[in-house]
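Why this split exists: single-chain examples teach little about how molecules sit against one another. For that reason, every record in the complexes split bundles all components of an assembly together and asks for one structure covering all of them. Below is a record exactly as it appears in the raw files.
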Amino acid sequence: MELVNKWPKYYKQDVVTHYCPGCGHGIVHRIVAELLEEMDLGKQAYLVCPAGCAVLAYRYFDFDVIESAHGRGTAIATGAKRANPKLFVISYQGDGDLSAIGTAETIHSANRGENICVVFINNAVYGMTGGQMAPTSLIGQSTTTSPAGRNPDVDGYPLHITDVVAEFPGVTYAERVSVATPAGIRKTKKAIRNAFQTQVDGLGYSIVEVLSACPTNWKMDPVTSCKWIEEEMVKEYKPGLLTDKREERRKEKG
Amino acid sequence: MDKVFTSGNHCIAEAAIRAGCRCYFGYPITPQNELGEYMAANMRKVGGVFLQSESETAAINMVIGAASVGTRVLTSSSSPGVSLKQEGLSFLSGFEFPAVVVNMMRGGPGLGNIAPAQGDYFQATRGGGHGDYRTPVLAPASVQELADLTVKAFDLADKYRTPILLLGDGMMGQMKEPVVFPEPITGLPEKPWALKGRGDGASRYHASLILDSLEMERHNWKLVRKYREMAEKETLYELYMMEDADFVVVAYGTTARIAKGAIKRARKDGLKVGMVRPITLFPFPDKILQKVARQVKHFLVFEMSTGQMVEDVKMALDGLQTELSFHGRPGGVIPTPIEFSRVIHRYYRRMQK
């Protein structure tokens, strides 16, 4: 018998997940761990985990991890990568973290074209604090701080931060994907692989936005959550490649 | 080694590079811009990193990133900017990461002004961010001391794994004096805790989230033990004309320099005045004040604030039979030696009655 589904080398064994049933974090964690193994990057990996549900990511990741204050992931990643360019630096962030409190850090690390990778989990809600409205929440989406549904007159509109930074010359690779379907998961892995390779090749900033379910705070079961991503969330946040300047960058670098 | 004529802000930057600092992150704010500008011109020459950040908050978090991988790292700012750095100072203390943070204080609160003041003493010495921690504080009073204490700050930061504050003011940063710089260091201390990638070893992490309250409590007491050890081994102060003094001035930084002029004048008039100048503001040199209390009858605290360090002096003298008075000029006003000597005369006469 051949073992076809191995436990990823850089994913700790014998740990019980703290993530809720149907949460997308576990899928993306596994993709990150698998890619670090496949691309032989685990030994020099340095991952910044955010304030949010993924603050405990070090429980699962078996490579070097540091925690960040809320929103400051890419500032810490910048400091670490600039201080030691040999490190393979990832900032793993959620939508409240990256597109609300950390907007300035996100915009400016992207604009500087820092040679880091950002894995951006967008579940349109604040997860760890109990389901408050995020900048990414959909119009009409009911949350604990928009109980009657997000109303643009008072709450503003869903923020497309990845589309914003994709416009920057310093952003080499940006893609939006979803982990709501098996096909989407495969695409996610491919996108994060491209992002990782961008840093390995020294081509600058890459970001992958992952539409990911939060059944607990959406008050849906996991299956309905995945359907909601496929039917509602993708209308606001269309999956696809947002920018790919890798060839340009290569030519610039000669 | 030759003497160099240089400003306080340039001096810190040069001393930091000589101390092996290889990353500087900062945001412009007066009156300390020359420090970042010196780094912009010189850090890359030694293979280091200079980055002008989008905010002080970003700068201090970049400091966390660089410190976490074992690099000697500096950021600098002035009062309003240092308020923004408090988030990071709390995290650095929690993580136990070494870093040096310069505050060239100006008048406040709010935007205040850009003149020298000492209104950030509480923020600096109490641990200005959230949570149960303190930041050790060094307060230089000359450009030479800025050079020496900058090097010392990096050594202390690494030794005790804590952020260290270098607390000056607009005057310290702007004034020029001759300095003899220390030789560049040749090796850095080992930092086995630094994140360098797991390599072939075990993975590591640094977390500041400690959900278990008993574990958090243990961490809090661990920090306290560290501060106590520093109080024992690292407390610094200067005694000035204390041999026969029966009246003592307590002042730090710029105010202490002005006080020296005032004390010289008072001495000419036959007043037996001396000074204790705290160099470490935390840990505070309370033991020497208690010793001095046996010799003098009156303590006079000078500050360029409405009265902050005076509370530490009060605590140090708690239960002792002695008089304590205070004279402060907040808001960026620079007092003169003549003004201070008049104040000394006033309280000296009262003491003699």
